[in-house]
Amino acid sequence: MQNKTKRVPFGWKFASLFTILLLIVAACSSDEPSNTPKVISGVTVFRDNCMNCHGADGNLGMNGAKRLPESTLTLEERIQVVTEGRNNVMPAFKTLLSEQKIKAAVEYTMQLSDRK
Ligand code: HEC
């Protein structure tokens, strides 16, 4: 009789411990996505800095902007154009965006080309 009454509370203690553990694990795994905003999103950089002239799909061609999906430039050449600007119409972004952001935006323009 004494044994039985002791066992029940122990069982419950383990059950609640297990539940708390599960909650901690759940809380930790839901924390993971908070790391993702640190990754630079090429789409976001492009949308914020390039879309006015080039358009969401790179085809707008505002003020003589090149149609990016038709561009034959390599990644390195595009980084050069975006960093230094060209013909006073394509702005230089070296003072506006970090190297990583320029690269992310240019990588996004490479994807636009692949899609054509
Ligand atoms: C003020 C308008 C404007 C903005 C903003 C702009 N561009 Fe341009 N871009 C142009 C124009 C105009 C050209 C064509 C330049 C020329 O005469 O060669 C061009 C050319 C380019 C080229 C060269 C394409 C080729 O094949 O020759 C790339 C790559 C490019 N832009 C990428 C970007 C990226 C990436 C951004 C954002 C970080 C951006 N541009 C923002 C106007 C703009």
Explain what this protein looks like in three dimensions:
The protein is mainly α and 116 residues long. The protein folds into 2 domains: 2-35; 40-115, Cytochrome c-like domain (Cytochrome Bc1 Complex, Chain D, domain 2), CATH 1.10.760.10. 59% of the residues lie in helices and 0% in strands. The chain has helices spanning 2-31, 42-49, 51-54, 75-84, 99-115. Helix 2 (42-49) packs across helix 5 and helix 4 packs across helix 5 (99-115). It starts with a helix and ends with a helix. The mean pLDDT is 82. Bound molecules: heme C. Heme C binds at residues 49-50, 52-54, 63-66, 68, 71, 73, 78, 81-82, 86-87, 89-91, 93, 105-106, 109. Heme C (HEC) binds next to helix 3, helix 4 and helix 5.
Topology:
Layout: H1 2-31, H2 42-49, H3 51-54, H4 75-84, H5 99-115
Helix pairs in contact: 2-5, 4-5
User: Which class of secondary structure composition applies to the elements?
Assistant: mainly alpha
Bound molecules: heme C
Main sheet makeup: none
Instruction: Give the total of beta strands.
Output: 0
CATH superfamily of the largest domain: Cytochrome c-like domain
Please tally the helical runs, counting DSSP H or I stretches of 4 or more residues: 5
Q: Specify the CATH class of the largest domain.
A: Mainly Alpha
Question: Can I get a quick summary?
Answer:
This protein is mainly alpha-helical and 116 residues long. Helix content is 59%, strand content 0%.
Throw out a few tags for this protein.
single chain; 116 residues; mainly alpha; Cytochrome Bc1 Complex, Chain D, domain 2; 2 domains; 5 helices; 59% helix; rod-shaped; binds heme C
